[in-house]
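Possible regression after last week's pipeline update?

I re-ran a chain I had predicted before the update to compare outputs. Posting the input and the new output here so someone can diff against the archived version. Not blocking, just want to make sure nothing changed silently.
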Amino acid sequence: MNKLIKGFLMACLVFFSMVAGAQSVEEIKQLAKQGNALGQAKFASLHILGRNGVEVDNQVAMEWMKKAANQQLVEAQVVVAAMYDRGMGVKADKKQATQWYEKAAKQGHGTSLAILGRNPTAKGSIKFGYQGMRLNAARAIPKEYAKRFLMQK
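New output (post-update):
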């Protein structure tokens, strides 16, 4: 009976690790070095979140996230923008942040459009605080998007 339970538990662990798209740090690093945009974003995400034995290092995170963003990975562009807004790993630079939000907006990224004040659903009779939204988004985006990147296959 114990062997049956152990076998079942082992099968569950294997299944869930496959479903989660679990990759080792070395696998992710190798993909990043090979120029894979998602691999670069994942490697940056490990440094943003401090996961899997990787220490938090926002400078390294920015370096790799920028590489992914330069390959037109829209979510990476938004993270780079937010990191410039907050000064995470780089000196805070609203102009650079806006340029990155612009790149993402050109690809139709809704949050970027809203941050730039171009989301038609946010306009109308209600006064919308774009600056407040931008500040809140810049706080949340790096970690939230990093979690999303790590869940992707």
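Follow-up from reviewer: compared with the archived run. Helices lie at 2-19, 25-33, 37-49, 58-69, 74-86, 94-106, 110-115, 130-151. Marking as no regression found.
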